[in-house]
Amino acid sequence: MIGGDPLAGRDGELATIRRALGGGNNTSGVVIVGSAGVGKTRLAREVLSRAESVGERTNWIVGTESARALPLGAFTAMISDTLADPLPNVRYLINSLVAQQRKGRILIGVDDAHLLDGLSAHVVHQLAQSRTARLVVTLRSGAEEPDAITALWKDGLLARLDLEPLSADAARDMIETMLGGTVDARSARRFWELTGGNALFAQQLVKDQVAAGRMRLTAGVWMWDGDVAVSQSISDMVGRQLRELTADVALVVDTLSQCEPLAVDALCDLVGPSDLETAEQLRLVTVERSGGELMARLAHPLFGELRRAGVGEMYLSRIRGRLAQRLAKKPDDDIQATVRRALLTLESDLPPDPRLYLQAAQHAMTLLDLELADRFATAAHAAGDPEALAVRAVNLLLLGRGGEAEAVLRSIAAGCSEGAHQWATMRAANLTWMLGRCSEASAVLAELKTCPETPAEKYARIAVEACLEAASARCAVAEQKSRAALDSGQLTDYHAMMAAVALTMSMGALGRTDDLTAVAGAALDRATTSFQASHMRFWFGSVYARACRLTGRIEECAAMVARLAGSAREIPSLAYANLAFLMGLVELIRGDVRTSVKLLHEALAGVERHGVTTGLRPATCFALAEAHAKLGEGEAAEEASAAAQSCVPEDYLYMQTAQSVAAGWALAANGCLREAVTTVDEAAVLARRRNQPTHELLCYQVAAQWGDASGTARVRELAQQIDLPLAKAVARHTESLAVHDGDGLLEASDAYLAIGDRATAADVAAQAAVAYTRKQERKHGLKAAAIAKELSDACGGLCTPALRVPASQPLTGRQREIVELIVVGLSNREIAKRLVMSVRSVEGHIYRACQRVGASSREELASIARRGPDAPR
Asked: Are strands 285-290 and 293-298 parallel, antiparallel or unpaired?
């Protein structure tokens, strides 16, 4: 399952070594300097391996502690006999290796040169000085080394390459190479932070987590949640000295393993100052000044994991309790400090503190850690706090655990008693958004009307009613109600977010964008500081992103996603699933389709990991179906579309357009263009009936991307109805496609590009190439095809129906339909059955299509179609 010893993230270093070995800067090799485990040996071995692969001879010499006491100890395998006087052997070794170089290129690797004895180091130095031998030498930074080795780089004989730990991106590349698949970003970041970018440690830690079942493949993505599994191998690599500590020094490490960084004055109230000094001298702890205060932390993150794995829980519980009591002696600096103190208390031998737990639950919700908030709220409720159940209900709602939230909310919202109104509206919101049971939500809200309401309660109900209207595709009513609720100024943070969601959905569907950005900004400002609404920023973000896409505001969408990504210091797992979806969606609508697929699969893995039943699951599947389809991955597109179809609640009328478009893309990717166009045409009719002009426009846009211009007249009406650059671009696109106007199609392509939609711009440029060729304007056709190819490459290599049409010899409609089915792998008999025609007729169309594009076989015809317009053969 796990590949061995990958080399990733070191392309720049390999290029530097190649230049040095090629004589760059008048050197004949390189000294690779770095800390233990950083990858020096692996890099050097890779250089020698590549040399061997092209026929060069190599020698590998290793310095060891045991051979260091022997003269020429590193070269004993190359010496036939040991003389009392080693100097003849020195001359022999140098002459022998230089002679080998004269016979042909030879590369000498010297590993751990800091462990060479003096004479071995002298031989290496002489070889470098001769300028005839090429060397790759590794050296541990900070170690005592022979003068002759130091001189290699100080005197400019060899170039020096300081090998730094892997960057976060390089570490992720390495881990994905090991596992042979995608690793979610949070897991990769965790490995990098725990190992400090040390390649050796990271490799072993990955193997340990997989072996222990802590890291699992979920929805095609490797995810690591939970504690760290510590094996003997990683313990031997990192923590040998931890086994030899006195009890007092171990207490220093164990205390910091539970809470770091920690102020030195607080730490010294719990451990002996002299023991802290000893731990610092042993390089187990670092002490640094920060803001006028000395702060202590562990010297390596793995030290804490190793100690936690090797000591008892009762011992650690006692340490946590003492820490919590010490931290409580002064006010918490921020909400994170309160959460930290509460967690220490919760996991200690101290008696429960329900008020602290409840406060920490609210703070954890603000910090987006809903799972931790649920632990605190549950503990507070168990300890007897009467307010804890209500806080837990809100948290369960945000977690997407709709069934549990419904049970709690139903119990505390019963009747018309004081305070019950707020929980009833939250229950209706939960029924709508988490459970997809809109009719039940409507009944709850209708019952509320029969109870006396304060103005604040009335507008809270109206805000949730607006959501119900939006979910049911009654956009104009949703807009009216949500604006009234927001304008009242009497909404709680939660209900204000509900109203903002409904308003943004309705504005996006109606094509009204005057205050769309202002509404979004106000909602996100409110969410950032509210425990009730903090996590809703990501849900709101997805609603806003959809509205931006429908109205062609792609850069505004990208700016919002960037804001959300930077809105918190840490993004916990469920929040990251939402954020990964948003980042994947924005890359999809901008046209970076391959990046989009990776991010969307991360989002789907998070959905699976947390059992999410909200709209995040189908929305992710919609986007994946489109992204895979645009890359020509028909099977994956069909799978994603089917997954979406299975999880969209019947009452979610607002999702039906997206569902149809996703299904259409999956059909198009599998060669069923006629069915794809029919699917979105039917969705356009439905959207028109429901007064969703931007939904209708989207349907006509994708139909035009697949070559259908039958909606031209209606698109012109829509462009007049909704005054948006996107509507004008779609109108220009369909009108030009209908009359095979190459100039008009290129103008439409430019209009899409100006909006920020590179993928659609590529499709329309490809259609322009075909239109020019049809009118015998070959020069213009080649130019348009080149534009389409450039845009397609920028999107990660698109393989859409438009880009599969050969520009040089355009096919008839029937020929194109058959070629699409050939591309997805159907036999002639299967094509005949699909299109209700004879096999002989199919063969005739294939023969004529081959003549048009210059193909000599069915397979070559499919290959030409896959390569796209005017691609070199």
From this structure: antiparallel
**Three-state SS across 94-113?**
HHHHHHHHHHCCEEEEEECH
* CA gap 505, 95 in Å, rounded: 80
CA atoms within 13 A on the CB side of 367: 21
From the list 809, 820, 862, 774, the residue with the least C-alpha distance to 674 is 820
The dihedral over CA atoms of 202, 205, 211, 217, expressed in degrees to the nearest 10, equals: -50
Q: Residues with Cβ < 8 Å from 439, sequence gap 6 or more?
A: 651
pLDDT in tens, 821-838: 777 677 878 777 777 778
Give CA–CA dist 176/42, Å, rounded.
Answer: 17
Cβ pair 421, 409 in contact under 8 A: no
- CB 265: neighbour CB atoms within 10 A? 11
| Site of tokens 């294939």 | 846
Residue owning tokens 């490799």: 203
84: exposed, middle or buried (C-beta count within 10 Å: 0-12, 13-18, 19+)?
exposed
Cα dihedral 511, 517, 518, 522 sign: positive
Give pLDDT tens digits for 154-174: 988 899 999 988 889 989 999
Tell me the average pLDDT of the chain.
89
- Give the list of residues 6+ apart from residue 493 with CB closer than 8 angstroms, or none: 526, 527, 530, 532, 533
The answer, yes or no, to whether residue 326 has pLDDT greater than 80, is yes
Contact 706, 668 (CB under 8 A): yes
Report the predicted TM-score, pTM, of the whole model to 2 decimal places: 0.84
Query: pLDDT tens for residues 402-448?
Result: 899 999 998 887 755 667 888 999 999 999 999 999 999 999 999 99
Retrieve residue 274's tokens. Answer: 């002299």
Backbone angles phi, psi at 109, to 5 degrees: -105, 135
3-state SS string over 776-836? Answer: CCHHHHHHHHHHHHHHHHHCCCCCCCHHHCCCCCCCCHHHHHHHHHHHCCCCHHHHHHHHC
By residue count, the chain amounts to 873
- CA pair distance 442, 468, nearest whole angstrom: 7
16: helix, strand or coil = helix
Secondary structure, 3-state, 190-211: HHHHHHCCCHHHHHHHHHHHHH
Question: Which amino acid belongs to residue 758?
Answer: R
Closest by CA to 329, choosing from 266, 407, 263, 423, is: 266
Stretch among 258-267, 539-548, 771-780 having the lowest mean pLDDT: 771-780
| pLDDT > 70 in the chain, percent | 93
Query: Tell me, what amino acid is at 222?
Result: W
